[in-house]
Design brief:
11 strands; alpha/beta
């Protein structure tokens, strides 16, 4: 199977259809999360006791014929939602083959164009960004590709997303970073705009970089997203935001982003309509 920084033809067709559905259907009152059948557990995730997953993979994600290492089992806190359409997609970044478990049944279980653009930028500017041992938090990590690449490049990563995404996110992170990165990524729940001081107190948590990719699209939580971005940034924090620009609301968000952050356009990817911005929070 060909490894790539871009999608295969079949996947591109599926993603195009998913985006079309997303554009039409994200008028619900829920924060963007799960598409398709209802989750089988409250919130779409299960918190697993250590050692409850079987060595033969029972209780693990569908579609994975390989046994998970016992150490991976013991670290897996969340079990991926039982989607029927998981696929294994391969990417090559930082000299490493990365295998991502994806499903078009969930917006948060698909690698979107902004993620691959951000991975490319991180890979090409590792020394300039000084990623070795840098403390990074990713907003809306989805299936985890960006967090995995940042970890491979030496960063201390905290990957965050909604509860129903955490199982697949942690599974992908462990499969691709366990025993091969200096710092094992952490997975945390982050609901935009909610309990920020309680879950991420400024006195305890400081990040050199906040990463975000394709978090802006047609949904009703853009104000909460911006609030979250502003909250997580402290003096010295750099926010890297990559996004495919699809709708007028994307540009409206960019306008508000520029009001809160000193903004620099770092790169453009015309083939995918992705723009990558650097933001430094304005103070005073």
């Amino acid at each position: 199977m060909e490894m790539k920084g871009c999608h295969r033809n079949l996947k591109s067709i599926l993603l195009y259809k998913t985006v079309a559905v997303m554009d039409l259907c994200l008028s619900s009152t829920q924060q963007p999360g799960c598409l398709g059948k209802e989750p089988r557990t409250p919130g779409g995730w299960i918190e697993a006791e250590e050692g409850t997953l079987q060595k033969d993979g029972t209780g693990g994600p569908p579609g994975d014929s390989n046994e998970m290492e016992p150490s991976l089992h013991s670290l897996q806190k969340f079990v991926p939602t039982d989607y029927a359409s998981y696929t294994q997609e391969r990417y090559l970044y930082a000299g490493k083959e990365i295998v991502i478990q994806e499903s078009i049944e969930s917006y948060g279980a698909v690698v979107w164009p902004g993620a691959t653009a951000l991975c490319q930028y991180l890979e090409e500017h590792t020394e300039e960004l000084n990623l070795q041992d840098a403390k990074i938090l990713e907003i809306g990590a989805g299936p985890g590709l960006v967090s995995i690449v940042a970890s491979i490049l030496g960063a201390q990563v905290t990957a965050t997303d909604l509860p129903d995404v955490l199982g697949n996110l942690q599974y992908n992170l462990l499969k691709n970073t366990l025993k091969c990165t200096a710092h094992l990524p952490e997975v945390k729940e982050l609901v935009w705009g909610e309990d920020l001081e309680q879950n991420f107190p400024k006195s305890t948590f400081y990040y050199d970089y906040i990463l975000a990719s394709d978090v802006v699209y047609h949904h009703y939580f853009l104000e909460k997203l911006l609030t979250t971005m502003v909250y997580l940034c402290q003096p010295g924090t750099v926010l890297l935001w990559a996004n495919k620009f699809r709708f007028s609301t994307d540009y409206e968000f960019l306008g508000k982003f520029k009001q809160a952050f000193e903004t620099t356009l770092l790169a453009e990817f015309p083939e995918s309509s992705v723009k990558l911005f650097k933001g430094i929070l304005k103070w005073g």
